[in-house]
Amino acid sequence: MLDIISLGDATIDTLIEIGDASLACSIDRTNCLLQLRYGDKLPVSNMVQKVAGNAANNAIGCARLGLRTAIHTILGVDQSGDAIVQALVENKVSREFVERDRKNATNASTVIRFQGDRTILVYHAPRTYRLPKLPRSKWVYFTSLAAGHMAYNKQVIAHVERTGTRLAYNPGTYQFLEGVTEVKKVIAVTHALFVNVEEAARIVGKKSIKESLRALYKLGAAMVFITDGPNGATAYDGEDMFFMPILRTKVVERTGAGDSFAVGVIAALNEGKDLPTALTWGAANSSSVILHIGPQDGLLHRREIETFYRTYGKGITPKKIS
């Protein structure tokens, strides 16, 4: 039996680093705008291309942590699609459910890196999504898709209800654009929900993190995880609430931090670990990823994750909060 099947789009990221820009931030720095000179030609100090996309990040990350993994994604018949397939092969992710689209190209994103953070310009090619007949698995991970996926939402919900598979849900840009009502329908059958602070506010309104956790739990998610970048992550399972600080690592680039956190959490839960341990695995995997450029180079293997946490997380543990 497969441990997890990841559902969603894969992409090729072009990561560019710039220095000729500025930030305009609110006083408390909760809202910052990246400013570029309009109509100018700006120098780029570094540029690399990486296999990426939430679903691919999850599938490759889970495979590295020892989960038997497959992915359902749609790729163009092009060099970018071939590169993604090659990455799946190298990381032992099953390609049984990978489709190739002869009409539309593989998805692409441009990641603008500036002062340790990133702004992502996302292109999802138009797709016709249809969930294939999937085998029984322990988990399904459902994440970012292009527009026009509402029928796919219903198929994922039906699959989870029919098979009893635990659903991990990390909604993406276009899932929110389809409307919060559709997102809530998926949350109602979700076992582990992963959102950041801003996404939580879009679903349940602007609240404190503790209030947001409880509100999302009431929508049906058995476990809720809210990430807040360098401020750490908080989780709630209906009984206990824990805050997990970030580990003591430098930041090279933050692309994939949220995906890798979810991967660590799911892998720990899949092994029967408790919630605090799952948070430490998530923090370790995320901290390793931000030490590298791109969302996959730093994804840890099973033999590495606990050692990484002991090395960089000394004295840092999940804190139970009321």
List the SSEs and their pairings.
Elements: E1 2-7, E2 11-17, E3 22-25, E4 32-35, E5 46-52, H1 54-64, E6 69-76, H2 79-90, E7 98-101, E8 107-114, E9 117-123, E10 137-142, H3 150-163, E11 166-169, H4 173-177, H5 180-187, E12 192-196, H6 197-204, H7 209-218, E13 223-227, E14 233-236, E15 241-244, H8 257-270, H9 275-289, H10 302-312, E16 319-321
Parallel strand pairs: 1-6, 1-10, 2-8, 6-7, 10-11, 11-12, 12-13
Antiparallel strand pairs: 2-5, 3-4, 8-9, 13-14, 14-15, 15-16
Helix pairs in contact: 1-8, 6-7, 8-9, 9-10
Summarize this structure briefly:
This protein is of the alpha/beta class and 322 residues long.
Can you walk through the features of this model?
- The protein has helices spanning 54-64, 79-90, 150-163, 173-177, 180-187, 197-204, 209-218, 257-270, 275-289, 302-312; strands at residues 2-7, 11-17, 22-25, 32-35, 46-52, 69-76, 98-101, 107-114, 117-123, 137-142, 166-169, 192-196, 223-227, 233-236, 241-244, 319-321.
- With 322 residues, it is α/β, with parallel strands linked by helices.
- α6 packs across α7 (209-218).
- The termini are far apart.
What proportion of the residues form beta strands (DSSP E)? 25-35%
Helix content: 25-40%
Beta-strand segment tally: 16
Shape: globular
Distance between the termini: 38 Å
List keywords for this structure.
16 strands, globular, single chain, 4-stranded mixed β-sheet, 322 residues, alpha/beta, 10-stranded mixed β-sheet
